[in-house]
Design a protein that fits this description.
- This protein is mainly beta.
- The protein contains one helix and 13 strands.
Length: 127
């Protein structure tokens, strides 16, 4: 679906996309502190020798309806200040993999999301 979305393609210029991972924030595991994603990850491959991939762009796909949980905002630190993101189920946010970001505590319900990384055809944000 992402390959056919013109906005996604123009925003990311994807070369490779790492398979998605999933998270669920609720109860005792209700937040994730400030961090920067790893610069390099390994593509899962059959056989020997995993292939390395740059993580130029981070993506978060929201899977829960925002009315189903309180808190849980994805907070991305940018040069324009903190951007607080809490989108509808099925909506995706893309941001530089070098951005410091966190997930605020979920105080009611459960926040489900998928996250993954993109190696862009263009290595630098400035380009």
């Amino acid at each position: 679906a992402l390959d056919g979305h013109p906005g996604f393609f123009s925003a990311t210029l994807p070369k490779r996309v790492l398979p998605p991972l999933f998270n669920r924030y609720t109860g005792a595991t209700n937040a994730y502190g400030s961090h920067v994603d790893q610069a390099v990850r390994y593509l899962p491959q059959a056989g020997s020798g995993a292939q390395r991939m740059r993580t130029d762009i981070s993506c978060t796909l929201f899977l829960s309806d925002p009315a189903d949980y309180d808190g849980g905002e994805l907070v991305i630190e940018t040069t324009f200040g903190e951007q607080r993101v809490k989108l509808a189920a099925g909506d995706l946010v893309v941001y530089p993999g070098t951005s410091v970001h966190r997930v605020e505590p979920v105080t009611r319900g459960a926040r489900l999301a998928s996250f993954f990384w993109i190696e862009s055809l263009v290595r630098s944000e400035a380009q």
